[in-house]
Amino acid sequence: xxxxxxxxxxxxxxxxxxxxxxxxxxxxxxxxxxxxxxxxxxxxxxxxxxxxxxxxxxxxxxxxxxxxxxxxxxxxxxxxxxxxxxxxxxxx
Amino acid sequence: xxxxxxxxxxxxxxxxxxxxxxxxxxxxxxxxxxxxxxxxxxxxxxxxxxxxxxxxxxxxxxxxxxxxxxxxxxxxxxxxxxxxxxxxxxxxxxxxxxxxxxxxxxxxxxxxxxxxxxxxxxxxxxxxxxxxxxxxxxxxxxxxxxxxxxxxxxxxxxxxxxxxxxxxxxxxxxxxxxxxxxxxxxxxxxxxxxxxxxxxxxxxxxxxxxxxxxxxxxxxxxxxxxxxxxxxxxxxxxxxxxxxxxxxxxxxxxxxxxxxxxxxxxxxxxxxxxxxxxxxxxxxxxxxxxxxxxxxxxxxxxxxxxxxxxxxxxxxxxxxxxxxxxxxxxxxxxxxxxxxxxxxxxxxxxxxxxxxxxxxxxxxxxxxxxxxxxxxxxxxxxxxxxxxxxxxxxxxxxxxxxxxxxxxxxxxxxxxxxxxxxxxxxxxxxxxxxxxxxxxxxxxxxxxxxxxxxxxxxxxxxxxxxxxxxxxxxxxxxxxxxxxxxxxxxxxxxxxxxxxxxxxxxxxxxxxxxxxxxxxxxxxxxxxxxxxxxxxxxxxxxxxxxxxxxxxxxxxxxxxxxxxxxxxxxxxxxxxxxxxxxxxxxxxxxxxxxxxxxxxxxxxxxxxxxxxxxxxxxxxxxxxxxxxxxxxxxxxxxxxxxxxxxxxxxxxxxxxxxxxxxxxxxxxxxxxxxxxxxxxxxxxxxxxxxxxxxxxxxxxxxxxxxxxxxxxxxxxxxxxxxxxxxxxxxxxxxxxxxxxxxxxxxxxxxxxxxxxxxxxxxxxxxxxxxxxxxxxxxxxxxxxxxxxxxxxxxxxxxxxxxxxxxxxxxxxxxxxxxxxxxxxxxxxxxxxxxxxxxxxxxx
Amino acid sequence: xxxxxxxxxxxxxxxxxxxxxxxxxxxxxxxxxxxxxxxxxxxxxxxxxxxxxxxxxxxxxxxxxxxxxxxxxxxxxxxxxxxxxxxxxxxxxxxxxxxxxxxxxxxxxxxxxxxxxxxxxxxxxxxxxxxxxxxxxxxxxxxxxxxx
Lengths: 92, 843, 148
Hints:
Chain A is mainly beta. In chain A, 10% of the residues lie in helices and 23% in strands. Chain A has a domain at 47-87: Herpes Virus-1 (2-Layer Sandwich), CATH 3.30.40.
């Protein structure tokens, strides 16, 4: 007998590339969950990485950057925020 | 001009003009005829023209008395015929007959055309003869007696009428009235004695009494006509005097139908009651007799209360006994039918011969004795049987009858109670029957349908009964924890899965709606959600869904029922499926997949799931053959290039493949799980009949023991056996070895090798349940803290009851206790140092 | 109130209760408007044995905006703490970040006290107390002395 795979239906689960149980420093919600203003996690509530490697819920960070007090700085290290584009959600 | 006022006018004119009695009498002759005509039931052969004497002078002189005038012009001048005819229209039998008076009228003017007519007053006031009253009365008396004795009346009725009128005009009415009453009384005394002779003849008494009554009525009718003038003048004008007819009734009642007059009344009543009893027993009786005599009672004013009371008492006792004996003798449906029949009969009885006023009290007696008294007995004895009855139409009718009858006596609450209890008992038997779980949902749906139709058809769509259905379902369906919720979810799965093609769109919608009603009753909605979600995941990922339209329809129903919070994750699952489709599209249009298509030649499709939406699957290790691993790597690389910041983990247990297989007996396509595929790939390029050991397979596939056992079993011991197990047997053991079945051949080209792994396993069930329980624990904790934070201080029992009211599932008190202890340990709460049953919130 | 505000404060409260830092305790947290915490002087420092009370007042923009933090009652004598309870600490004003929390602020103040070598009020205490507004956040702070 000889068999060959002709068609393959696979299933994969994606998660954010962050350590388990880690929470967003701003809202304290785990990255697996969504930010407090969203209802469902996943594509609708993306994470955002900075050049400084710090990561937040995108909604949380944008909210911070909009405040005057932020002066465009990363909440963690107060360095000027720059997006890490290699980790940005790629819009199809 | 009405005949009455015309009469008065005539009267006045005549009295003024002269006091000629005869003339007066003649005028009255006209009147009597008119009156009779007005009554329209008596035609007299007597006309006024036959009056004894004439009065030419007066008639000619005054010419104002209508009847004389009519006669006059009728004969003298043809041109007045029209007028005459006009009058004839009013009094059709009024025909002027030429006779002596008319001759006189005609001759008068001819013989003495110029003679003056002088009217002079009488010198003496005319006087009646002394014996006038006696003579006249005796004429009348003779007539009355003749009437009573069924003899011919010697005097003409016309004359009798005038006699009466004259007596009245001469103010002799009171004594005339008295004399007449006396005459009636005398007669009835005689009648009474005749009746008393029949007293002991039970059979004939009623007939005799009825005869006597009928005769009385007939005779009094005639007498009243003769004495009409008395009725019209004296009786009307004198207070305290009743009409001749009524007087007749009064005397009849006093002489014959009063208790003081002997037993006739009692015996008659008893006779009637007996007759009615006979009719109730099914004999046929003379209803005309009953009608006549009962209406005699009504006319005599002794129907109510004496007869009616007696009748109602008898009815009560009759139905009291009948109810008690029948209720134990015959089945409830037959009893109900009988009661309906009885009610109909009694209603007919009222219209046949009773006073209509008796209808309500009579109905009440029957209701009381046949229904109200036996409500509980009937329900206890027959309700469950009626509910169980297999003949649907019949039992719906019977229940409708029961409902109608109980509604009559305000006992629907009792019926509702039995109805609710029946549902609870039946439902609880279905729910708690561990051996019938496979049909539980179907059975519940059938029960629901049946109850609904009973409420709709038999119970008049009564809201209270519809509510009882809901209440009872809620009670019994939650008697058994979790299982019903799980089975309902599975039932839905079955309906939404491929292979359910027997149903059309409408049917499936209907079924889903019905199931949703059951779901509504369930307290543990989280259990349903967990199982539903797991089944939905399988349908979506293994392409087993019958239709996405149905899926979305069910989803929107759930959203409507439980709110968007309940379905947001389920919706997320659909979204993942959609996103994956789009992503696969872009994957196949990318350069990166070219290698896959041209070299590896595996048609890869991947569903990428968002972790939070889907059920959590335990990792299932698997060593992929290099080609497949490469294939997977290509996809992963592409995915991560498009989705930065993500990790991808493969769910091997959900993968499935289509294999092209070359067997010695021909080529086939095999639809298999990923595990099955990888195992089968191990057998590639082996020599004929070459075996490989269980351990070898395990080592080269990396599949965990349990999973591998299941997989090998499905390939070598299932319906379609691609492999041969050595030694043979149903269960796989680590010492077994396997070879390809070189004789493998089946009819079809594409073969589905049923994967046991795809079916639900016990552990999987257990797992789903446990996950829900864990989730519930969090919910209990959160609710406890929320309540205590608000209330600060609560007794243990208060806290538990408040918690139970807030939770969406049914929690065990013992579990809640454990959670409270745990919160005390974690210092959210503390016990009061003085009263340990009081809990305090620690802030 | 935004979901971020309530969720975040709830989480902080639970965290402070389950896992309280040494010498710090929540004494009043009935609302999300203001909390009170006690701060114990650390053994072996100038403030050993003393207990102070900190009041946190949260604006609806917390944690995007810093909370207002002052001492109440017994005010520690410290070169960066004015006698009206106002604290001169940069993370409370222009150096605030949403990743900071009630816990981290308390720990900063605790360490500020612990590192103090000389219990004396700020040099401009009298003038400041006379002119300062009720909220320290309305003061223009200049943070020149990071050494204490």
